[in-house]
Fold this protein.
Amino acid sequence: MLNALGYSPALGRLVGLTSKGGHWWKNPSHVVLVDTRGAVSDLGPVDAHWFRTDDVSAGAVVGTTFYVRDTARLHAIDIDPASPTYLEVVRTVVLGWPALALDDFTPNPATGAFTGVWAGGHGPGEVVTFDPATGRVLSRTEIAGLPGKSTYGAVVVDAAGTVHAVNNGHQGRSRVYRITGTSAVELSAGEPMGMVDAAGCLPAPMPPRAEPPAPRPEAPLPPAPAPVLPPAPVPAPVPAPAAVVAPVVPPPAVVAPPASVAPQPVPVRAAREKTEPRQDLALEAESTPLTKSRKWAMVTIVLVMLGAGAAAARARG
């Protein structure tokens, strides 16, 4: 949604405010330009995170300063791209009554004051002028023929100082009025409108087209704080493995081959003679007379010994 329109004669374009979303703390208000063909150029965000487009309801441009009403306050935004305060709110003033209730206002080129129409009372509508530098109300003039108890969402002043105002809805119709002095004339009527805005009266011929300044890059949001992680556990020292002593294996004994022994000559076995069958030899008769008597003597000795042994046994018994 585009709101708080103002007209810049230097750029030949309308200046307004818009937002990229409803979350103002994430999507700040942007200053945009709109040419006569409806093309929109985004200049960048207003350098004030507290600034909300939702509360803005009126705007006007004087030179390179864009004025917007934020409820009872009037903010001045620098729109000069060569300025060090480009797109910053350079001044804020508090508006007096009933300037703080105007739904639209426009600069009067003849006086430099801002002019709007207020019709919140029971009587006819009023033309209200105030000083944008101080917010002080300069004049209030009742206009005959200008309906009260209604809203005037669009107000412009032409080069001759004539005020043109659009009533959003009176008796079921939206109406356009031309105000001269203290009287108003209805110029046209149409369907009622919930919201309406206007800014500037284009001269004839049209001003040459001027290229808008390059948009200022939007400042990135601060990074989210990194999560605090618990310190990583320190691994317990792993004892060094004990040295493995390899068993000493003695080298295999080298058995020296036995000294070569000179081969002994194998005796040649004599060929076995063929045996002859044994022949019994005839025994010769004893020729010695003592042979037989020796045998009898040995027998006698044995008998004597046996007898002596038996006698001794009897004597002991």
User: Anything to note?
Assistant: The chain has a mean pLDDT of 77. The CA atoms of residues 174 and 192 lie 4 Å apart. The first strand starts at residue 3 and ends at 8. The chain has one helix and 16 strands.
